[in-house]
Amino acid sequence: xxxxxxxxxxxxxxxxxxxxxxxxxxxxxxxxxxxxxxxxxxxxxxxxxxxxxxxxxxxxxxxxxxxxxxxxxxxxxxxxxxxxxxxxxxxxxxxxxxxxxxxxxxxxxxxxxxxxxxxxxxxxxxxxxxxxxxxxxxxxxxxxxxxxxxxxxxxxxxxxxxxxxxxxxxxxxxxxxxxxxxxxxxxxxxxxxxxxxxxxxxxxxxxxxxxxxxxxxxxxxxxxxxxxxxxxxxxxxxxxxxxxxxxxxxxxxxxxxxxxxxxxxxxxxxxxxxxxxxxxxxxxxxxxxxxxxxxxxxxxxxxxxxxxxxxxxxxxxxxxxxxxxxxxxxxxxxxx
Length: 336
Prior knowledge:
- This protein is an alpha/beta fold.
- It folds into two domains: 3-99 and 119-149 and 239-279, Bacterial extracellular solute-binding protein, family 7 (D-Maltodextrin-Binding Protein, domain 2), CATH 3.40.190; 151-237 and 281-335, 3-Layer(aba) Sandwich (D-Maltodextrin-Binding Protein, domain 2).
- It has helices at 3-18, 43-59, 76-85, 117-124, 127-133, 178-186, 199-205, 215-220, 246-249, 254-288, 298-307, 309-319, 321-335, and strands at residues 30-36, 63-68, 90-94, 141-147, 151-156, 171-174, 190-193, 210-213, 229-237, 240-245, 292-294.
- The strands form two sheets. It has a six-stranded mixed beta sheet with strand order 7-6-8-5-9-11.
- The two termini are 35 Å apart.
């Protein structure tokens, strides 16, 4: 079965389960604009399509959903600020830029916090995810659900990264984010904050040696043209948050709010499946392009994890000690 057919079947199956509340007099004519920082062919596009289909079914076509891609309405943080002021309905944003609004979201940037996709799902869809979501209304934001950005991995043009020592002296581009900067400096690299749009040229000219992103991004951004090695570091899992404007959300009926939340979950399930399928395909394309891909042994990974424990301690004051304690407790319970 093709990916498109698989996703179509998944949408249909999920919609059947979701169509429990028919459209009624409590559903008004509405237009929802969705801002995104990524391109329409990203797995987020599959999630938006599924969510839009669900909304059309649940509202009998009373709502119009318009998605704007590639930061057409501004970057993630700018779009989130528009939500807060009530001038935009929805944004699907990585949690990382939103640390500027809610510092507790920095918990998802902590290195090696989450070990698997199954852990991520259990954490985000459980009590801890709700605990974080409950922080958003004070910022005039409503988090409808968590979608997947994926595990981040390191690519570079110098050598395979197989141990802690292999990080030393490597010039690594990181997001403009203090926790990522601290993590890679602690690992011994020359960490360089840089806007994403500048990364390919910086790699091509040799201004930097390395960058870190999910496999899908390494593939679709064609970093394989200017890199030689990819190491399966899986050093961070940062989710997407599906955020809605609270000032607008508060004007919706209870039924309309339920439609938004449930259709967002329909989109979540399709998006995660598409993300994981595409990640495997992207990894194969990276290999086919000639990049050397390596895993890190459990023994060496344990040393790397130990080396960055200080990042947790230094970040606790900003994130909130209670938040860090709660996430560790939640993960300990998930792991049994």
